[in-house]
């Protein structure tokens, strides 16, 4: 195990930077979760809520809502965004594993009945959505060869311990999941909530033969600190704010998902999608 900096690529540090630059509005007063979406919709700035919902949780939105903010995460400007991203992708960097005791995301570990999706500050994002959604999460699963796949998919809360995910479009995760379904086995998966913007950009790319943890390192320009999950062998960012661990139900595409307000201006609904079963939530003490 190697000691690494777990603050440099923390989402909270990036949001602090946006506040200092005037790129982020700050709301200190308590706000009901049902009112969060109205503060985000059409807002050109990022927004930080310091007392969201009955838990008075910290919640950030619109963090990656402009090319300027994406460029800032890469320490460049808007004109240099694409070139800098392409340059970094040519240099994959393997992750560095840290001990669980040194991983901030494992400072608080909630398992079984203590782990409750409904305790998270997930809000109704659009008026006709079928449920509160987590729309900014990264999913981590493993290929048969042991490499990690990283993607970005929405999560529809269905209760304290289950959620729907959108897994209709062709993707590596769908292929991995269908292999598990064919074996009638659950697929271990972990969702990271509260990741640095570079990690989301990296999740959009797949380099032939390269573990996607190395791709995150490439886009960060530094080795990704990873820690083993509590309930599986998946490695996830040790510097994330939250990790939701569980598995995709082996019954396959069985549950309705949606409706959800799509970014293009209409509502989408899927008749059949897999079900995510939660077995652990872990997070930073001050997340």
Query: What are the low-pLDDT stretches, counting only 5+ consecutive residues below 50?
Result: none
The secondary-structure class comes to alpha+beta
Name the shape in a single word: globular
Which strand-content bin applies to the residues? Answer: 25-35%
Written account of the structure:
The structure is a single chain. The protein is an alpha+beta fold and 287 residues long. It has seven helices and 17 strands. Strands 5, 6, 7, 8, 9, 10, 11, 14 and 17 form a nine-stranded antiparallel beta sheet that branches. Strands 1-2-3 form a three-stranded mixed beta sheet. A hairpin with a 6-residue loop joins β12 and β13. The protein is globular. It starts with 10 loop residues before the first helix and ends with a strand. 40% of the residues are buried.
């Amino acid at each position: 195990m190697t000691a690494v900096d777990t603050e440099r690529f923390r989402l909270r540090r990036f949001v602090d930077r946006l506040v200092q630059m005037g790129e982020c509005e700050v709301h200190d007063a308590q706000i009901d979760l049902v009112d969060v979406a109205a503060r985000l919709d059409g807002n050109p700035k990022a927004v930080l809520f310091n007392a969201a919902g009955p838990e008075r949780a910290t919640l950030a939105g619109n963090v990656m809502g402009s090319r300027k903010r994406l460029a800032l995460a890469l320490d460049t400007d808007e004109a240099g965004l694409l070139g800098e991203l392409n340059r970094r992708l040519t240099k994959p960097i393997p992750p560095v594993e840290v001990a669980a005791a040194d991983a901030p995301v494992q400072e608080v570990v909630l398992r079984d009945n203590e782990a409750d999706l409904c305790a998270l500050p997930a809000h109704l994002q659009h008026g006709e959505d079928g449920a509160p959604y987590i729309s900014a999460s990264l999913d981590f699963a493993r290929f048969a060869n042991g490499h990690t796949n990283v993607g970005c998919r929405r999560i529809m809360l269905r209760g304290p311990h289950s959620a729907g995910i959108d897994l209709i479009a062709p993707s590596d995760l769908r292929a991995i999941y269908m292999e598990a379904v064919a074996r009638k086995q659950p697929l271990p998966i972990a969702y990271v909530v509260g990741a640095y913007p570079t990690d989301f950009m990296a999740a959009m790319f797949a380099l032939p033969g390269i573990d996607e943890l190395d791709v995150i390192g490439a886009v960060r320009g530094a080795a990704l600190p990873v820690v083993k999950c509590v309930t599986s062998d998946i490695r996830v960012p040790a510097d994330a704010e939250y990790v939701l661990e569980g598995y995709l139900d082996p019954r396959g595409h069985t549950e309705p998902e949606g409706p959800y307000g799509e970014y293009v201006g209409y509502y989408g609904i899927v008749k059949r999608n897999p079900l995510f079963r939660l077995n652990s939530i872990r997070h930073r003490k001050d997340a």
